[in-house]
């Protein structure tokens, strides 16, 4: 089991493929396997690094509450431990917050930056939503929380066309020996709640791609447009008819867009 000893933390990671390094950073409550559909595709073109953030999966270390800056430093330390001097950095949802922080705090490490379904700041709506998830987790447990969060992540069309997906997700959650605990979820959620608008993104010079679904009710397109407005030279792609998880719902199109951007930079 590949584990990087990073101070007080033992960070689980995997490396797939060869070529220019790509670091994939996952979102709230998700371990490295959330990127499986992307890892399997990108490894034919790049060296893909995936890992478990503190508070999820097989990464071990001090409890939170966490911050996005702490998560970013863990990602940077992992790259250093692997001898990687520069990498394409790709983040989705909370992973996009971490990717923003990594690019601001460690700009020399970032060859290019990709932010999927991310947000500009934790506005009152976002904070209220995440606080409600914390309360639900404490009251009803992780299975019921997952059932509720999936309603915010996936589109009604996906529920209609792929109903078996959700039974599979429930089974995987029940069988996962490293399933996230309520306490760890709440600790990770604090990083989302505490994420402030990063004015420093205006100083970023790494090529940047920002994407969002036009039906994303969790991180509405206004957040991505705010980032696009502030990051010089960034590109914005809006997925039509898509919610918060194009990497699951339309993986072929999602992977092609990512591949083409990374190859170009």
Which short descriptors sum up this protein?
single chain; 265 residues; alpha/beta; eight-stranded mixed sheet; 11 helices
Description:
With 265 residues, the chain is α/β, with parallel strands linked by helices. The chain has eleven helices and eight strands. It has helices spanning 36-42, 68-81, 94-105, 124-140, 142-153, 156-161, 164-175, 182-193, 221-230, 246-249, 251-264, and strands at 3-6, 9-16, 21-25, 47-51, 87-92, 110-116, 208-213, 235-239. An eight-stranded mixed beta sheet has the order 1-2-4-3-5-6-7-8, with helices on both faces. Helix 2 (68-81) packs across helix 3 (94-105), helix 4 runs antiparallel to helix 5 (142-153) and helix 4 runs antiparallel to helix 8 (182-193). The longest helix is centred in the middle third of the chain and has 17 residues, at 124-140.
Structure at a glance:
The protein has 265 residues and is of the alpha/beta class.
Shape assignment: globular
Specify Rg, calculated over alpha carbons: 17 Å
Q: Level of helix content?
A: 40-55%
Q: The biggest beta sheet, please?
A: 8 strands, mixed
Number of E-state strands:
8
Order of helices and strands: EEEHEHEHEHHHHHEHEHH
Q: Supply the helix-strand structural class.
A: alpha/beta
Unreliable stretches (pLDDT < 50, length at least 5) are: none
Count, helices? 11
Percentage of residues in strands? 15-25%
Distance between the termini: 32 Å
């Amino acid at each position: 089991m590949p584990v990087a000893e990073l101070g007080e933390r033992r960070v689980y990671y995997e490396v797939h493929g060869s070529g220019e390094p790509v670091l994939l950073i996952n979102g709230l409550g998700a371990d490295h396997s959330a990127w499986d559909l992307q890892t399997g595709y990108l490894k034919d073109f790049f060296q893909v690094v995936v890992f478990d953030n503190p508070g999820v999966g097989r990464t071990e270390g001090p409890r939170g509450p966490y911050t996005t800056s702490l998560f970013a430093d863990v990602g940077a330390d992992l790259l250093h431990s692997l001898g990687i001097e520069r990498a394409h950095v790709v983040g989705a949802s909370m992973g996009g917050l971490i990717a923003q922080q990594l690019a601001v705090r460690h700009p020399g490490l970032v060859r290019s930056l990709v932010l999927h379904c991310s947000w500009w700041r934790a506005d009152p709506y976002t904070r209220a939503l995440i606080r409600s998830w914390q309360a639900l987790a404490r009251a009803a447990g992780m299975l019921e929380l997952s059932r509720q969060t999936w309603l915010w992540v996936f589109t009604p069309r996906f529920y209609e066309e792929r109903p078996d997906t959700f039974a599979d997700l429930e089974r995987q959650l029940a069988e996962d020996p490293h399933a996230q605990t309520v306490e760890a979820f709440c600790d990770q959620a604090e990083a989302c709640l505490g994420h402030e608008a990063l004015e420093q993104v205006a100083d970023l010079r790494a090529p940047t791609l920002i994407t969002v679904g036009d039906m994303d009710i969790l991180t509405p397109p206004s957040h991505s447009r705010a980032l696009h407005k502030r990051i010089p030279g960034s590109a914005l792609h809006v997925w039509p008819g898509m919610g918060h998880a194009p990497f699951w719902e339309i993986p072929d199109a999602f992977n092609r867009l990512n591949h083409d951007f990374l190859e170009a930079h």
